[in-house]
Records
---
Amino acid sequence: MKLARDTWLLFQRQFMLVLRNPVWLIVGIIQPLYYLFLFGPLLKPALRPALQAQGTPDPSSGDVYRFFVPGVLVQLAIFGTFFVGFALISELRAGVIERTRVTPVSRLAMLLGRSLRDVVTLLFQCALITVLAIPLGLTANLGNVLLAFALLGLIALMLSSLSYATALKLRSEDALAPLLNTVGIPILLLSGILLPLQYAKGWLQHVAQFNPFSWATDGARALFAGDPSNPNVWKALVILGGLTVLSIYWAARSFAKSVR
Amino acid sequence: MMIETTGLRKSFKTRAGTVEAVRGVDLGVDKGEIFGFLGPNGAGKTTTLRMLATLIEPDGGNATIAGVNLRTRPGDVRRRIGYVAQGGSTWDEVTAREELVLQSRLYGVAKPEAQRQAARAIEAFQLSDFADRKCKTYSGGQRRRVDMALGIIHQPQVVFLDEPTTGLDPQSRAHMWGEVRRLRDEGMTVFLTTHYLEEADALCDRISIMDGGLIVAEGTAEELKQEISGDVVTLGLTADVADKARTLLDVESYTRRSEMAEHGVRLFVDAGATSIPHMLRSLDGVGIEPTSIELHRPSLDDVFLAKTGRSLRES
């Protein structure tokens, strides 16, 4: 009860901050739109052989976008939440973290208030992109799309927690930026978001198997394709669910202990 | 006793090695007093304050705040204390009123009551001119008053102020002193750190002098000054003769201790009025004529100097 109340209070404040300075929200929406409108048409012919290999002899626009849009959404989920730690560093500098830590407010709420704000903004962006893809030829079952959004929400919750915990540990933008980029790029490349991993060599496919986001991409694609019973779906939910719990645990501890 | 600590210790690991920031602090602060921690930067004042405010965990020792054990029940300590950090505590894009309401609600207060508390704080700290503007527009003095209002919105029994007047102009500083005294008069116990001698002297009911992670002296400003009984005589001398004059006067029976001052020599003597004629005679004998003579009662800086061998103004 106290946790829910504290989380709600801090969530409201964090959301207010987003609305008062919505630049990042807008950037976060525009970037995936570039992919949708500038990269999607390019990809259409390129994806044909991959989709044919998967058992779609004559892929339509719908087939291509059912493959492409979930990838763009997973990418947005990764890159939209991976860098939220930067905001926390400026909050550390402003002294608001200390001020909150002196109050009896729940340490888990200090994390969740922020991470849930990130989840909500992400899902808003994802909904917008999905809707805008409909005129391009995307059709999908609403229930399946909502389940895919749950998967995206888990990614956001997990990565924002990790980003906040890392920011609390490093406490400087100069240290955080190279670290996040070094980790983020391979995660993105090995998730099969832009091009399917079928094109990859055997060893690369093997490495990608250990990338939870590769499972998320496969799961989200299966859902958009109308195949919720595909084992990739439950596997993605279980893998991301477990990792999310671990990340939240670690990050909440960092808020409790944050030294100096 | 509102605050009681025994053997409080904290060290930090840095690349250069382990820094023992606080090396065993014992202190007691009574209910309703303004207690000052005086010392140079790096003395361990802020680290001690942050330990007492539950922000960092002590490595060793014990503390009781408002009757609650800091080590075993930090959560209950948090309900009883307020803390005002040195570097600010507000979001730029939010107004002081919004901050005050949130802060009050973080202590479990319902929204309508939180709004009433915020309005009261705005009045008490005279924030009404700017309380509905965004915090990023405030001056340094305004910001500090908002920080203070945030720190005590829940009427804590003890409030910790870290360098409350550092960087403020004289007028804002005087205003701040007034606020601190008001809190004490309302029954709060105030624990503050400062590196300003005047502030410790004028504002604090009791003072602890801290240096190198340890408390080197404690008492009221008067008690501390009386510890080094006698007077301080400062002789203004040109650089070429200062050394010679010091060597000459240092061995005299009335001199307890001497040191080089900025433009001359400082002597700690038993009684200034009777020793000055002797000094002048001795100096005249070797052909030295001081440019000025000053006699004063020991200041807190003299106390600091006597305890640590360094001047607080220089460190």
---
Amino acid sequence: MGVPHYKLAMWTFLGSECFFFGSLLATYMTYRGKTQSGPIPLDVFDPAVTSISTFDLLASSLFMVFAVHYAKVGDLKKMLFWTGATMLGGLIFLGFQFYEFSHFYHAGLGFTTNIFASSFYILTGFHGTHVAIGVFLLGSTAWAAARGHLVDMGETTEVIGLYWHFVDIVWIAIFTLVYLLEYT
Amino acid sequence: MAGGHGGDHSGAIKLYIGIFVALTVLTVVEMIPLFGLGDLPASVLIALSVVKFVVVCYFFMHLLGDHPIFQRLFFIPLLMVVATIGVLMTLAGSWSLNYRKAAVLDRAAVAAMTPEQRGEACLARAGVKDCCPEAAAPAEGAAAGSAGFDPATCQLLARHDSEAIAARYRGVWSGDCNAWAKSAITGNEYCASPGLVLDVAPAYAAVKEAASAKDPRFDGFDAKSDADKLAVLMGVGKEVYDANCAACHQAEGQGLAGVFPPLANDPVANGGKADEHINVVLKGLSGKVINGVTYAAAMAPWAQLSNEQIASVVTYERQSWGNKGEAVMPAQVAALR
């Protein structure tokens, strides 16, 4: 087809990831509101934490396109800088998720406390896992780029970038369906 | 390479920044309800998120201008997923629900509800199995007094399909809770241990109503011979027993070891203890030691049954499965009621 193979593979993978997160979101949405015991989302949600996480991930997406852009024009220094900034955004997101989970737990929301807790932790936990994997992938890409191991730095960075943006758009869906809808 | 793309270069960066600003503005709009600054309907919030989603796909992930195979690889699964979520939510009746409505155990909300509303809420949202945690695995040694319905009820629940149960127990959940806790963050009180105590009165009102229509088999009962009286009592008694008692005490009166006492060979069902036997049916029983076994599960009172029905079922119990108790007449039940 004349398209880069890694990119084709990544888009195929992201298509399958739609099914993965789709099933978790389907579970959350199907059970939404079907609990008789607290805490319910409004008992534990913290709008400030969620907002900062959301803007943080959005900013990291911008940093990611910068990194891809400079990788494509062959500017290693700037590519490394923006890749590092993206990773930092991911780590900050993970920090807030850790903070959020521990806060929820201390507010009485254990993993099996109710159907909200189980479906929420599974969904957002797997999203956080993807962020962590993304940070790892970005780190390895930056390391390989710095060492000159990459045959095509632009393409590799773009493919990893696709993964990172996917994690960001999954958060767009989670942010709306899990968090925002509780405030309507 | 960098130099050759100079013009493009700053143009692309500017575009990215412009997209980012647009996404930020949309996100700020989305946050209006989050901070209580105004209301936005769910449809608007979902539309905003779809716009953000598509913009990231087309501009940050470069689907715009890239080979169309990538769009197909991504959007076909995505649409399948969206359709699946929609179908599942429809099948599960989830569209009209949300967690704010689900705060049925919020103490103030529960207090404001009638038992019927609570029962409706429980069954509509949670289904019978969630209303009765024990229903999933009720049989041997179902722990008496643990959270959820009492074991006798769970036994009933487990033995019937959920629709029959929904019909029978609609509107009977009392909304009680073993332990209320306070959310450290919002200060709301919520139920930390939903001990859903069954409030049987409304359900039994229906049984009582049916019972008040007098059974024609008792027409001219007092004028009948003793043998004919016994025949009527045993016939009606078996029906009442099978409908109301067999779920716990079992069809042959053998009970369920350690949970529901057997009636066969029961001391009260034999010998001259008819009054005690009637009282158990009329008033219920709990914490009883029978033949050396302690039964923690409580038996509900069955006063909603008519005098004729109670006389019949007590007679049936006293003269079945090898029991040798005397027959009981409706007048005896009336005297003890």
